[in-house]
Amino acid sequence: MNSIAIKATGLFVFLILFTSCNILKKDTFPNRDIKVVIFSSKGGSTDRWSRHLSSIMEKELGVKMICENVPGSLGGKGAMKVWNSPHDGYSVLGSSESSVFFGVNGVAPMARDWEFYIAGGSPGVLAVLKESEFVDIHKLIDTAHQSPGTVSVGNSGLGKLWHIKAKQFAVAAGVEFRHVPFNGSGPAIDALFDKKIDAISCSADEIYDYVRNGKINVLLVNELDGFEFDGLGYVESATELFPTIKQTYTHLFQWIGFMLPADVPNNVKEKFDKAFMSALNSPESKELMIKQKIQWMGVTGKEAKDIILKMESNASWIAKELGVAREDPAVLGIQKITNSP
User: Fold this and answer.
1) What is the pLDDT of residues 86-103, one digit of tens each?
2) In a domain, 10, yes or no
3) Rounded to 10 degrees, what is the CA torsion of 315, 203, 76, 101?
């Protein structure tokens, strides 16, 4: 064999080995640590569940899932950090229903551009400190009627779910709250304890420990149905008080989980999906869900995308009707759907 043939054979072997290594590397995702960008502050449901699920998913994936809180821009700051990273599955968004407002808030790509992994959710509530003058929801409504704009209600950010729900309820009750935004539910809860706000709009999960130990009182379940709380008994829902708002509350609820850019390779999505469902079905997750009153959902793939697209439509048009949307959903190409269940 002459020198040219030897060189050609060597090059051929090198190309085969190089190609094989790349295929192996692709098929063995993950082979390094995964960054989980949590788009809200510490202390809320998104932070708690992103960290909880990540710690269990590590066992399935065989690598570390390193969590980092990147709040700001109504979740857009964290979302854009993931979006601007390579779409290879090594940058994941720890997220919630706030993502369905990305389009009308003008902060990040909309639902059609993402893949969703939905763990579950907790009902929204209006709550106060136990020693508050607002002993029930009727007292709060009466005060807001008498002195419009004086009852302050904290939320995790203007234009996000808990702000929208509090505003929906206020419109239905014919009152005006002073809505106070924070960078996540954690800081809003701190403000409640510091008595900087009168009430808070958040999820039951985020305050349930304080309800158990008698520090916080739930005045209203801001959902379609009421809820049974340990130590409080049954708390009525917004739609029980005002049945006419029932249709606007459909397809608008909390969910917590993860997001990946939609164009991440399919083999990566499949492995992430498997680890996600394994973590969600773990004894630790089931125990925490029961303790914190989280409704298990466990939805991924096309089913998750369909749920989110309906929610995005509903949320976007409600935000426009309430006057809090920064962008017109019609211009964004978000079609208005009927509010049937």
Assistant:
1) 999 999 999 999 999 999
2) no
3) 0
Q: How far apart are CA 219 and CA 235, in angstroms?
A: 7
**Extended beta strands in the chain, E state:** 34-38, 65-69, 91-96, 114-121, 124-129, 152-155, 178-181, 199-203, 216-221, 227-229, 233-235, 256-261, 295-300
Q: Which two tokens mark 328?
A: 């017109």
Q: Let me know how long the chain is.
A: 341
pLDDT tens readout for residues 249-293: 877 899 999 999 999 999 999 999 999 999 999 999 999 998 888
pLDDT at 307: 94
Bond prior to 283 in cis (omega within 30° of 0): no
Residues of the chain with confidence (pLDDT) below 50: 5-8, 11, 13-26, 340-341
Tokens linked to 261: 């850019």
Neighbour-count burial for 208-221, b at 16+ CB within 10 Å, e otherwise:
bebbeeeebbbbbb
Q: Let me know the angle formed at the C-alpha of 115 by 208 and 167, rounded to the nearest 5 degrees.
A: 45
Locus of tokens 């939805």: 299
The per-residue pLDDT for 250 is: 76
Asked, for residue 129, whether it belongs to a domain, the answer is: yes
The boundaries of the domain holding residue 65 are: 32-121+254-321
- If asked whether residues 278 and 237 sit together in one domain, one would say no
Tell whether 87 and 165 lie within a shared domain. no
Q: pTM of the predicted model, to two decimals? A: 0.85
Number of domains observed in the structure of the chain: 2
> According to the model, what pLDDT value does residue 57 have?
98
Cα gap 290→230, rounded to integer Å = 12
Which CATH number goes with the domain that contains 201?
3.40.190.10
Residue 205 lies in a domain: yes
Can you tell me the distance from the alpha carbon of 259 to that of 279, in angstroms, rounded to the nearest whole number?
Answer: 16
- Kindly state whether residues 258 and 114 are assigned to the same domain: yes
Q: What pLDDT was estimated at residue 27? A: 59
So what's the pLDDT on residue 183? Answer: 87
Residue 87 belongs to domain with CATH number: 3.40.190.150
Within a domain: 77: yes
Other beta carbons within 10 angstroms of residue 106's beta carbon come to: 15
